[in-house]
Design goal:
By secondary structure, the protein is α/β, with parallel strands linked by helices. The chain is built from 7 helices and 5 strands. Helix 3 packs parallel to helix 5 (126-133).
């Protein structure tokens, strides 16, 4: 028996989800686990629409977005990993946590956009709420701005290290060189 037999991977189809899918895929390979991909139709995001807007029309758009997100996940997931899909309706964090309680899930792997400050206060964080309320472990993978920031900082640090190495290699003792001039 493996530590993780079922991995829940919630998706909203946003940019950067490939990093999350890769992480969940590798975890699934190591543990010979199944990935359960979940899309939550978040009807609350359309509460500001004019009253004459048809709910059926909005629902069809949201369902179509969900199908596209789940199809993308299945395309990107490793071929040797079993992927099951599900769609539910509600508030994303609430439905993700509810899913972990109603369906046997051993771990949640989800993306986090790494918002901070006022953005986080105003927009909230689905990942943060899931981490706080989930009864199973939650692995968060930085996507979007957070991932780009980490990669940019890593690249800048590597460049600084390379520059300092080349200065050191070219002039082992700067004080001695200054004296010799």
């Amino acid at each position: 028996m493996s530590l993780y037999e079922t991995i829940l991977l919630p998706t909203d189809g946003s940019a950067g989800i490939e990093r999350v899918i890769d992480h969940a895929g590798e975890l699934a390979r190591v543990h010979d686990a199944t990935i359960r991909a979940l899309y939550v139709i978040d009807a609350t995001s359309f509460t500001g629409l004019p009253m004459e807007t048809s709910w059926e029309g909005v629902r069809q758009v949201l369902e179509s977005e969900g199908e596209t997100a789940l199809e993308q996940l299945q395309r990107v997931a490793p071929e040797d990993v079993e992927v099951e899909t599900a769609t539910v309706e509600g508030t994303p964090s609430t439905e993700i946590v509810r899913y972990t309680r109603e369906v046997p899930v051993d771990v949640v792997v989800m993306g986090t956009h790494g918002r901070g400050g006022i953005d986080r206060l105003l927009l909230g964080s689905v990942a943060e709420r899931v981490v706080r309320k989930s009864a199973v472990p939650v692995v968060t993978v930085p996507v979007g701005g957070a991932a780009a920031t980490v990669e940019t900082e890593d690249a800048a640090e590597a460049e600084r290290a390379t520059e300092s190495d080349s200065v050191t290699d070219a002039d082992p003792d700067p004080a001695q060189s200054a004296e010799g001039s």
